[in-house]
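Figure-free illustration: sequence to structure, shown twice.
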Amino acid sequence: MSALQLDAEALFEDLLVHVRGLLRPNTVLVGIWSGGAWLAERLQRELPLEGEHGVISSALHRDDFGSRGLTAGADHTRLPFEIEGRHILLIDDVLFTGRTTRAVINELFDFGRPASVTLAVLVDRGGRELPIHPAYSAARITLPAHQKLSLARDDAGRFSFDIQERAA
């Protein structure tokens, strides 16, 4: 499947259906900044969950912090609930190496010890560097390592994908 043929809205609907099956009592949604946060926001509106969703940034726990520095997403962690003992359904747009997911899990544990952490993603593009696997992905694709797949959101809140060349 070519990334150019990915219909982000159709994949979101598929994610919505399958995320329902991952919910259990005491589950909260936490979206990874920024695409995952957009997905979590919309999922929260459409799922039978009380309260608010959370947003988490990977910036402070990245293993490449020294070379990347403090990114724009560093101050975006917002967890309006207790983490301790909760089932965390972590939402991301694109899973690639697993390094962002690892950093986010480290950030979560700074706030408490969850009962569990489950990962659901819109697109799994392979290329894992760490042993991280989503409980659900709406699509699996392969892209060359030099390309970056990003979720975009228009003013009406509709999703699409952008493909960019990675900086050398």
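We now fold a second protein in the same way, so the two outputs can be compared directly.
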Amino acid sequence: MEAVKSGADALFILLGAIMILAMHAGFAFLELGTVRKKNQVNALVKILVDFAVSTIAYFFVGYSIAYGINFFQGADTLAQKNGYELVRFFFLLTFAAAIPAIISGGIAERARFYPQLAATALLVGLVYPLFEGIAWNQRFGVQAALKAAFSQEFHDFAGSVVVHAVGGWVALPAVLLLGARRGRYAKDGAIAAHPPSSIPFLALGAWILTVGWFGFNVMSAQTLTNMNGLVALNSLMAMVGGTLVAVVMGKNDPGFAYNGPLAGLVAVCAGSDLMHPLGALITGGIAGAIFVSMFTLTQNKWKIDDVLGVWPLHGLCGAWGGIAAGIFGLKELGGMGGVSFMSQLTGTLLGVLIAVIGGAVVYGLLKKMVGLRLDPEQEFEGADLSIHNISATAERETSW
């Protein structure tokens, strides 16, 4: 029976890893559909190569920082218990690799290719696992200190803060250091619209992400015995809440409509195992409102050219999710209990702080040492031709 259990657990977490791996296709198509046509190939290539670099960085450095585990031993040792620990690495890697996938959408259309890969290696190898280890593996005594101070540890079941808030807040200094796309904001205050190149591809990306998210959340249990259908229902309710609020506040704009469910799902990750479904619905609805209002504010008022709105979507909605777990997870509001508002607030702020400092240091050093941005001619030509020597539709190459 023990062999059957270990095999079932390995299969369970493997299926979760595969579902989250598929979400990276969602990141790719969401970006492809949002950027202009001259940058579509770059969107697709970046997500794939970032995942490969993330794997190397996490395998050799990041996983050891977060969990104190390395793979420098015989294959016979590694394969024990049906190789569960190996599959668990694969599963947690797909979370880690979401960090550069999130950032990619914010810096789209003007970032150089290889400096971004260097940033991916540093962020996934060093910055992300620092907070991952704190939140999910009792590293550095932070959780013990929170429990001593507020009676409960910081709780983030599936990564509202660990993955999404960290990714979104790392992206903010990257976007600011790069600056806006040329022609996006005029000196006289005019704003040039860069509408999505393909709403169908944008919608496809959002749908892939939405479906994969049920692996992201439900399979964060990591074993069959810990799996709970409450997580699935709460994820569904938050997704619906985010969608409905975003489509109303966004005045039927499809970009808002398809990012609404993502906002709700980002926010519910942390407390999806604790909340009542009504609490999850409210959490998702508030996240949808946060995304629409803050995306509009950052783009039109503050003139921060965050192309896919990754700071509002992941950074702000992720931080809201960490805090919301400390509200709607309370028994007084129908939750399971075992959570403290102050621990959630403190843990969320710590994650944001690590992300902002890490992002500023990594992208600041790269900007100073090698530069982050395409030159004006390359940006005008588009990242597809400038970096990859081909366009998405190849009319120029095939028309003659």
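Summary for the second example: DSSP finds 17 helices and no strands in the chain.
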